[in-house]
Specification:
Helix content: 55-70%
GO molecular function: DNA-binding transcription factor activity; transcription cis-regulatory region binding
CATH class of the largest domain: Mainly Alpha
Largest sheet: 2 strands, antiparallel
GO biological process, one term: negative regulation of DNA-templated transcription
Strand content: under 5%
Number of strands: 2
CATH topology of the largest domain: Tetracycline Repressor, domain 2
Structural class: mainly alpha
Order of helices and strands: EEHHHHHHHHHHH
Domain HTH tetR-type: 33-93
Region (Disordered): 1-32
Radius of gyration: 24 Å
Shape: flat
Biased composition (Low complexity): 13-22
CATH architecture of the largest domain: Orthogonal Bundle
Number of domains: 2
């Protein structure tokens, strides 16, 4: 295997000499241009159309016009393919240059993360759920940790704040790409019946909030959540004397 930048790729067979891996699968139309990148892009297009559940080695091969076995020269299987899709999307993250303001920079990272996720909503969810450890996948973590360290956080505090930020942003985006409002939009007649049922349920707070629960503006929800968590992070750093509240215990034996 070799590394092209941050993406791990498999060396493509170039002949039948000693040490050259034997190509599996019968060559078919499109096989001469088959690459890992082409496979990943075809998989993203497939997910856009049919969702992640529609991905399989045969369905991807069919879209490319090749034998399914030939894909194994470039990916190890479905899990490796889904990891490659998530990594491909992460590589596309183009964060703005840091401004030196933690508040501004954290918001920019959150918005960039969301934009990349929503560019392919059904595939974008993979970057929120796949466990990746390549350099490309770890870059957002490095970017956030660098910001927090520059703001004065010690490593342990930076990690805790990082996890809080990621959990909040990831949770918000997962809700956006997979769920709708608590009370979905319905016709007037059904809305009237639902309200009558709620009013007789003995849950007055729910009755009062029902119109808001039926409305879900993704942009407003994300900005509200981002503002809440960024404000909490920056306020904590200021209150604890630039991150000095959390010590950095060493592992046992160090």
């Amino acid at each position: 295997m070799r590394h092209d930048g941050a993406v791990t790729t498999k060396t493509e067979p170039t002949g039948n000499g000693p040490g050259t891996p034997a190509r599996r699968g019968r060559p078919r139309k499109g096989a001469s241009t088959l690459t890992r990148e082409a496979i990943v892009e075809a998989t993203i297009a497939l997910i856009d159309d049919d969702g992640v559940e529609g991905v399989g080695m045969r369905t991807v091969a069919r879209r490319l016009g090749v034998d399914a076995k030939s894909l194994y020269n470039y990916v190890d299987g479905k899990d490796d393919l889904l990891d490659a899709v998530a990594e491909h999307i992460l590589i596309g993250l183009a964060f703005p240059e840091p401004t030196g303001s933690l508040d501004v920079d954290l918001r920019a990272v959150g918005r960039t993360f969301r934009a990349n996720t929503l560019a392919h909503p059904r595939a974008g969810a993979l970057i929120l759920t796949r466990q990746l450890d390549s350099a490309a996948a770890l870059y957002p973590t490095e970017r956030l940790l660098s910001m927090l360290r520059a703001a004065g956080c010690r490593p342990a505090e930076a990690v805790r704040l990082l996890r809080t930020l990621l959990a909040t942003v990831v949770g918000t985006l997962l809700r956006e790409v997979t769920a709708g409002p608590t009370f979905g939009e319905v016709g007037p007649a059904r809305e009237g019946r639902r309200r009558a049922d709620l009013e007789s349920s003995g849950m007055p707070a729910l009755v009062e909030a029902a119109p808001h629960l039926a409305r879900f503006d993704h942009d407003e929800e994300f900005e509200y959540t981002l503002d809440l968590v960024v404000t909490a992070v920056t306020t904590r750093i200021e209150r604890t004397g630039r991150g000095a509240a959390v010590t950095d215990p060493l592992p046992p034996g160090d």
